[in-house]
Design a protein that fits this description.
Elements lengths: L2 H23 L5 H10 L1 H16 L8 H24 L5 H7 L3 H12 L6 H18 L7 H8 L2 H26 L5 H27 L1 H9 L1 H24 L2 H7 L3 H11 L7 H21 L1
Helix pairs in contact: 1-12, 1-14, 2-4, 2-10, 2-11, 2-12, 3-10, 3-12, 4-9, 4-10, 5-7, 5-9, 5-14, 6-9, 6-13, 7-15, 9-10, 9-12, 10-11, 10-12
Length: about 300
């Protein structure tokens, strides 16, 4: 198995776990409060990961350029909006479905990567992306028929639009992260990726933390009071972001995001065993379609 595939799967697991914990924080924190904890508490864990890797593997990189910092900032802003939209998409239809809407990110990232980065995918990989996205959308319909009218009605609901908007923001984040890694001088893409995580999370803490202090000052106190749960979110966020950044440094964005859709499988497991939601037959069918699509993506990339 290529290293980037294993890292992407681990990233999807960490992200699902973090999102589940973040969803529980919504009981005590506002939308922005629950979102900012992943950056605020993620910075120290990111520094720990960066320092540990450097002590073990060594290596170095050149001074950050202005363009690198700009890309990290843009990635941070896009991820903030994506996170807020994702959390806002969770509604009465459940955690699994709210996350599933954002999985159109895979095809959005693929298209943007072709335009911006000039990445080229074989036809088999495109077919795999299409099948996996169809599996996710089938899963998202929550018992509705697959008639064209039903699909249209499902995709124009506020929760669906927020989820797809989150997917678009995450796709932009991925593009900026890959370009930032290329821009930073150095020969070790993993070391550069871990440094980019720390820089990006620091910027995000300042940006969203400043917004929280200005608009919801009471939530700042709540964020620190919830440190026991929030620190767990931060640790998982730092671990997940580090894996995503490393994967983007090692492989094309389109392939990473396509394989990363296995997150929905972890989401189903978390929604069943962590949040107590019931799984249905459609969940199994959607999961099988998703896995089939990912297999085709990998087959096309060999």
């Amino acid at each position: 198995m290529p290293l980037w595939v294993a890292i992407t799967i681990v990233a999807a697991l960490f992200q699902t776990w973090r999102t589940a914990l973040q969803q529980r924080l919504r009981g005590t924190l506002s939308l922005n409060g629950a979102a900012v904890v992943r950056y605020l508490y993620g910075v120290p864990f990111g520094l720990l990961l960066l320092g540990t890797y450097w002590l073990i593997m060594g290596g170095s990189f050149g001074p950050p350029t202005a363009y690198f910092l700009l890309l990290c900032g843009l990635a941070g802003i896009a991820q903030i909006f994506g996170t807020n939209l994702l959390i806002a998409s969770f509604g009465p239809r459940g955690f699994a479905v709210g996350t599933a809407y954002s999985k159109t990110e895979a095809v959005q990232a693929s298209i943007i990567a072709v335009i911006v980065l000039g990445e080229v995918l074989p036809a088999l990989s495109w077919a795999g992306i299409a099948i996996s996205v169809f599996g996710v959308m089938y899963l998202s319909l929550a018992g509705k028929g697959l008639a064209f009218g039903d699909i249209l009605r499902a995709t124009v609901q506020p929760a669906a639009l927020r989820g797809m908007g989150a997917g678009f923001c995450f796709a932009l984040t991925a593009i900026c992260v890959r370009k930032a890694n290329i821009e930073l001088p150095g020969t070790d893409p993993i070391l550069k990726a871990l440094f980019a995580v720390v820089v990006t999370n620091t910027m995000q803490t300042v940006m969203q933390g400043g917004w929280l202090l200005l608009r919801e000052p009471a939530q700042v106190v709540a964020v620190f009071r919830s440190w026991r749960d929030s620190a767990k979110v931060g640790a998982l966020s730092a671990a997940g972001s580090s894996c995503w950044f490393i994967a983007f440094a090692l492989a094309p964005v389109a392939l990473v995001r396509a394989v990363g859709q296995v997150e929905i499988l972890f989401t189903l497991l978390f929604s069943r065993f962590f949040l107590g939601e019931k799984l249905k037959g459609k969940d199994v069918i959607g999961a099988l379609l998703l896995v089939s699509g990912v297999v085709l993506v990998l087959a096309g990339s060999i």
